[in-house]
Specification:
- The chain is an all-alpha fold.
- The protein is about 65% helix and about 0% strand.
- It is built from nine helices and no strands.
- The chain has helices spanning about 20-30, 30-45, 50-75, 90-110, 125-150, 155-180, 185-190, 190-195, 215-229.
């Protein structure tokens, strides 16, 4: 038997007070970034939407920035905490700030539903998109606050993390807008590798629920008419 002490995989390891229900809820909120990564991967694989790929690429760049900032600033976490590594800025706060602001920018400024959608489909209204954005931003605020409550970060570390994440989201949104306006994105999607993986760009005008729905409705109605005849 080796005498080497066992190590802990801390990716989902969160300390909380078992006697405090709020602390328990905050521990679950700490898993939001991991859940979002699963959502990213699932959506990219199932939809092949380039907009989601671009958003995820920005998310990874934001994480790389956080990694660099922590090692440049080298500010310790609060004394009454159990986490490893540096605390400035909060990676959780930066992650969710980037995601929520990127989603908000997309829904309010880039997503333009068809003016005459199919009869079988109702596009997201402006109020719906504002509502989804508010939920995303509210969730980000809860995750950021939970890092302070669990004593993993100081308020300053969380605020800087939110600022870094929000700033990254805005800069990346502007960069991808230039990419679209310059037609570089359209050119890239015509490359053989993009076509081989069936990369598409429909979510700008449609939501993900519409994918395949109109085709299914057409087939269903055709089958119904055939049975009636």
């Amino acid at each position: 038997m080796s005498s080497t002490p066992l190590a802990s995989l801390s990716l989902t390891h969160v300390h909380y007070n078992p006697d405090d229900p709020i602390s328990f809820a905050c521990a679950w909120l700490a898993l939001v970034p991991q859940a979002l990564c699963v959502a990213y991967a699932t959506l990219i694989w199932s939809t092949r939407e380039v907009e989601i790929m671009l958003m995820f690429a920005g998310q990874l760049a934001c994480e790389a920035l956080n990694f660099a900032l922590k090692r440049f600033i080298k500010e310790e976490r609060p004394k009454a905490m159990y986490g490893k590594g540096y605390g400035m800025p909060s990676s959780h706060a930066q992650f969710v700030a980037y995601f929520s602001i990127s989603l908000t920018l997309f829904l309010l400024f880039r997503h333009t539903p068809r003016k005459q959608p199919a009869a079988s489909y109702t596009s997201l209204t402006k109020i719906s998109r504002v509502g989804i954005s508010a939920v995303a931003l509210g969730n980000a605020a809860l995750v950021a606050w939970s890092r302070i409550y669990l004593s993993y970060h100081t308020p300053k570390q969380v605020l800087i993390g939110c600022g870094a994440g929000g700033g990254s989201a805005i800069l990346w949104f502007l960069a991808t807008d230039i990419l679209r306006r310059s037609r570089l994105l359209s050119w890239g999607m015509e490359l053989p590798i993009a076509r081989a993986f069936r990369i598409r760009d429909l979510v700008i005008e449609e939501d993900l629920c519409q994918s395949g729905w109109e085709k299914w409705e057409s087939r269903r109605l055709s089958t119904t008419h055939s049975k009636e005849n």
